[in-house]
Amino acid sequence: MEHIDGKGCLRLVSRIVFLVEATFNKRDFHRFGIETLQSNGFGVQVWDLTKVLNPGYAANHRVPDPYTFDGLRVLETNDDIRKAIVRLERNDVVVALLGFSSKYFFIYRSLSRRGIKYGVNSLVPLPGVAPKRNYLKFATKGFSSPGKLLGAVANRLPVSLLGIKPPSFILIAGTAANGSNYPIGKSTDVVNCHTPDYDRYLQMDKTLEARVGQHGVFLDEYLPFHPEFLIGDLKAPAPPETYYHKLNDFFGLVERETGCEVVIAAHPRSKYEDHPDYFDGRTVSRGSTPELIKDAKFVLAHCSTSIGFAVLFEKPVFFLTTNEIEKSYLSDHIAMMAKWFGKRPLNLDEYGELDIDREMTVDATAYNLYRQTFIKKHGTPEIPLWQIFANYLRNSSAA
Prior knowledge:
alpha/beta, Rossmann fold, 7-stranded parallel sheet, 6-stranded parallel sheet
């Protein structure tokens, strides 16, 4: 099927299909720019593959903001996925918001056999870590299982031997993103854009300078309960009984030292309403992280991707860890993140005297470098991410 867009231009792409492996929710609807793509004349579907790819997650986690729309399809078996791919038309485009390892190969292989144009993404790049002993143990966990060992071997084979063609395009944010986790080929188009969080930043009122309020913001990562641990079969980095107690003790100290209330920017997939009051009566807000950071005096964090908002609004960041977290795979990530800002993580078990002046510093050079490296390259369009993608599809179809 060929379609003519509103400007009379021939457009070969008619439908965009997103593949996701974590339960679709309202936040995803906005982050995937579905309304933007629809306003550009594209049909949009989302195939939720969670029950197939991450059954533990699907069975044990309920998103706090469930959402549906006409294009949502929940597929429940491998066969459902294969049949759905067979029914795709040649002018459909698939955006695979998936990883690339042996458990996904049947999807990429099915798309390749059908000759369907598909793309991958590197939209949320983060500082890399060098593998240390504990990280290596995490990475090789479970290789005693024959299936997992075979999967690890398959991951290292040339994808051409697996019947998988390179993606037609990759969405890139920041100079650090290179798609090295995917089988990028010479024919793969690189679409330079920015992180989804930058779209939120674009939508915010920046005609006035950001106010500096009398509060600090903790970027919650829902560490004792994060649903991604259901995907990776991982142990939570810290148990709730000790983790929140240490946080609250530190928050109290910071509040006394700064005169600022600490508010909690709850993780978007958290459900604190189902738990006791873990934050000792402090304000807990889900879904308003950028607004809280814009008006904050400082930010407290582990290694959340929302640190990007602190960079965009030039807010000082305190990096936090604990003895329990230091024994987990997160330790290296927190240390590397802090290093980018010229800081060291504060261990809430042994930080000693708090140097507020040091923690409140902002290194403008470091912030600018982080922005370009992990959020948005200089010179890329200041328009929504999915409008950049829509423009790419229109231009590539006309070529």
